[in-house]
């Protein structure tokens, strides 16, 4: 290269460098404006929290405080009524019917085991690509945060510590039990999860961050220190609604799928005089979880990020405490699909309720929307921002819950419609029957309602992925066996 050409080239390089420097500066500036994200997952938390009114005696002052400071979706539902597939759906932004991840899945296989094309990208990975620091502790994906979910993971995905033997309930294939144990809150894994978050919030962070806080309680075993049991009076505990003949109008496949032998039934609880005790134990665990969440919210309020953080609190699915004669999740009924979903932060209206049916699957695109990241049209959910800005906005999307291939529940503002793999159905008019006692599916008057809702059932549901598994009852053991066989 000769000297004559050197000067113009050098000028060009200098000019390009200046442009790049300006671009970088504006990127950095933009990144500083991006909201931080505090993503609080609570395991197996149903609507028994004050902002949702599911149980009149529940004590959740911190969830109440969070609900008052933002917006609560009162008709929010999980996409699978079990930890593993629900969380896989949240972090991939895809329905189980797209990925084939209908059942439990190891964190490391959420991407590789998905049947979707293109392969999913985890929410946290998209955020990372756009400059977010990702960190967290506790239960986020099913085993915590495997599969490289986060850049920094503090551990403590843990349902212990466990007493030497079960205190009140014995059952194979379930850790269902309850009782006051251990002695102190600081022996609980959730205390360490909250401590991790408190420390993270006290530190100076260079750019926007995603902080995941995965609270393990009220997942079984319902063991928390005595102080939480002492907050409730056993004699006056209110029991959930239940009808002994409730299953008489269910199709056979519903009885097979929802058969939950490892956990107590309402019948068993009544016979053994244990129902109030068990309800109290769940309430004790919810109150304890609320306390740990409150510690994190306090830390956020005292931090540099108080005015620039979106807080999202969700549960991975609900839980029956005897309603419809079951004590578990894993059903296509309201107690199992409905979840608390609270959102607060800059620009989000305070003390506001949105009754539109939404799904946890909508969190992925919603967070991308608030972080100014383009939303891929391969995602199955949609941003909730229009509803956050106007909770009464028109919204014609029901919530979808899938429990195994081709067993699908569709929930709109009034009805719950369930169609099973063999074509049999359930339909509940929740405006008249909030406990879902009366299956209207065989009443011809409701044919137009069923047809209207059936349109929303995903067609051509993906085959059950061979990496997904669940060995709860004979139906699920067979589903798992067939899926594993398909890989051979
Ligand atoms: Ca769960
Ligand atoms: Ca019934």
Automatic annotation (TrEMBL):
GO molecular function, one term: metal ion binding
Signal peptide: 1-28
GO cellular component, one term: cytoplasm
Keyword Signal applies: yes
Cofactor(s), by name: Ca(2+)
Keywords: Calcium, Hydrolase, Metal-binding, Signal
Lineage top rank: taxon: Bacteria
Xref: SUPFAM superfamilies: Alkaline phosphatase-like (SSF53649)
All residue ranges annotated as the Sulfatase N-terminal domain in the record: 35-372
Keyword ATP-binding: no
Pfam families noted in UniProt: Sulfatase (PF00884)
Alphabetical list of InterPro entries matching this protein: Alkaline_phosphatase_core_sf (IPR017850), IDS (IPR035874), Sulfatase_CS (IPR024607), Sulfatase_N (IPR000917)
The family this protein is said to belong to: Belongs to the sulfatase family.
Protein name from the UniProt record: Sulfatase
Species of origin: Pelagicoccus mobilis
């Amino acid at each position: 290269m000769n000297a004559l050409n050197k000067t113009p080239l050098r000028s060009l390089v200098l000019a390009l460098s200046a442009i790049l420097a300006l671009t970088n500066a504006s990127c950095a500036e933009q990144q500083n404006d991006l909201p931080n994200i505090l993503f609080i997952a609570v395991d197996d938390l149903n609507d028994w929290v004050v902002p949702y009114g599911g149980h009149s005696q529940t004590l959740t002052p911190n969830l109440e405080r969070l609900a008052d400071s933002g917006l609560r979706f009162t008709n929010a539902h999980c996409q699978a009524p079990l930890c593993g597939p629900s969380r896989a759906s949240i972090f991939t932004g895809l329905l189980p019917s797209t990925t084939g991840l209908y059942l439990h899945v190891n964190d490391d296989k959420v991407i590789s085991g998905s049947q979707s094309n293109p392969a999913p990208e985890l929410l946290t990975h998209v955020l990372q690509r756009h400059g977010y620091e990702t960190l967290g502790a506790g239960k986020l994906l099913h085993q915590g945060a495997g599969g490289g979910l986060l850049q920094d993971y503090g551990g403590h995905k843990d349902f212990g510590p466990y007493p030497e033997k079960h205190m009140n309930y014995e059952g194979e294939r379930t850790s269902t039990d309850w009782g006051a144990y251990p002695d102190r809150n600081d022996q609980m894994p959730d205390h360490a999860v909250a401590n991790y978050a408190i420390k993270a919030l006290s530190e100076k962070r260079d750019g926007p961050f995603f902080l995941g806080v995965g609270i393990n309680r009220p997942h079984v075993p319902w063991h928390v220190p005595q102080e939480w049991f002492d907050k409730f009076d056993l004699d006056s505990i209110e029991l959930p609604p239940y009808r002994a003949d409730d299953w008489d109008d269910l199709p056979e496949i519903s009885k097979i799928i929802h058969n939950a032998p490892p956990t107590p039934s309402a019948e068993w609880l009544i016979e053994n005089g244990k129902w109030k005790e068990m309800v109290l134990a769940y309430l004790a665990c919810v109150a304890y979880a609320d306390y740990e969440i409150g510690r994190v919210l306090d830390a956020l309020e005292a931090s540099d990020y108080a005015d620039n953080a979106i807080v999202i609190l969700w549960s991975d699915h609900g839980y029956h405490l005897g309603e419809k004669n079951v004590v578990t999740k894993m059903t296509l009924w309201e107690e199992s699909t409905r979840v608390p979903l609270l959102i607060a932060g800059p620009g989000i209206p305070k003390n506001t309720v949105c009754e539109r049916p939404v799904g946890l699957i909508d969190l992925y695109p919603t967070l991308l929307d608030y972080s100014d990241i383009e939303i891929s049209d391969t995602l199955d959910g949609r941003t909730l921002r229009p509803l956050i800005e106007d909770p009464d906005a028109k919204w014609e999307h029901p919530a979808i819950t899938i429990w195994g291939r081709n067993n699908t529940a569709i929930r709109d503002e009034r009805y719950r419609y369930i169609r099973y793999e063999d074509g049999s159905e359930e339909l509940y008019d929740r405006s008249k029957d909030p406990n879902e006692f009366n299956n209207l599916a065989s009443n011809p008057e409701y044919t137009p309602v069923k047809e209207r809702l059936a349109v929303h059932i995903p067609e051509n549901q993906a085959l059950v992925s061979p990496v997904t598994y669940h060995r709860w009852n004979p139906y699920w053991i067979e589903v798992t066996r067939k899926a594993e066989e398909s890989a051979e």
